[in-house]
Design goal:
This protein is mainly α and 143 residues long. The protein has helices spanning 9-17, 26-84, 87-98, 132-141. It is elongated.
Length: 143
């Protein structure tokens, strides 16, 4: 039979008292300062890269919007060009320039300066609607 002896209380205390401590010497503080400076530098560089990436994305969105606007304008111009190349436009312009109508068509030619203003009694008179407040009162209270 073996008997185990308990460790003396002083050995247990020594094991508990061991802690990790940074050296307080100048060398230790220098390394800490260097680490802080390098960390700050890396943080600033990361911030710059994030800002540059955001700025490039914003500019790319603006360019995409410009491309879409130019594409829409290009489509409109293409439709106009298709119309100008059509037989309908050529026929219309030929009739306009030669003052000749199609078969069965009656042409009315008004010389420049012969236009007359519409008489005042021929213009329909419309009564201005009452103000919105009166309209609401009429709606709710039937005045």
């Amino acid at each position: 039979m073996t008997v185990e002896a308990a460790a003396p209380p002083s050995a247990a205390r020594k094991r508990v008292e061991r802690r990790l401590r940074l050296p307080a010497s100048r060398g230790g503080l220098t390394w800490l300062a260097v680490l802080v400076i390098v960390g700050a530098f890396l943080a600033v560089q990361l911030g710059r890269q994030i800002y540059v990436n955001w700025e490039i994305s914003r500019q790319a969105d603006e360019v995409r919007a410009q491309i879409a606007a130019v594409a829409a304008q290009n489509d409109a111009l293409q439709r106009e060009l298709d119309y100008l190349r059509s037989r309908a436009f050529v026929s219309q312009e030929a009739r306009r320039l030669t003052d000749v109508g199609a078969a069965g068509e009656q042409a009315l030619i008004i010389p420049p300066g012969a236009e007359a203003a519409v008489p005042a009694d021929a213009v329909p008179r419309t009564k201005a609607p009452p103000p919105l407040l009166e309209q609401w009162l009429d709606l709710f209270f039937g005045r």
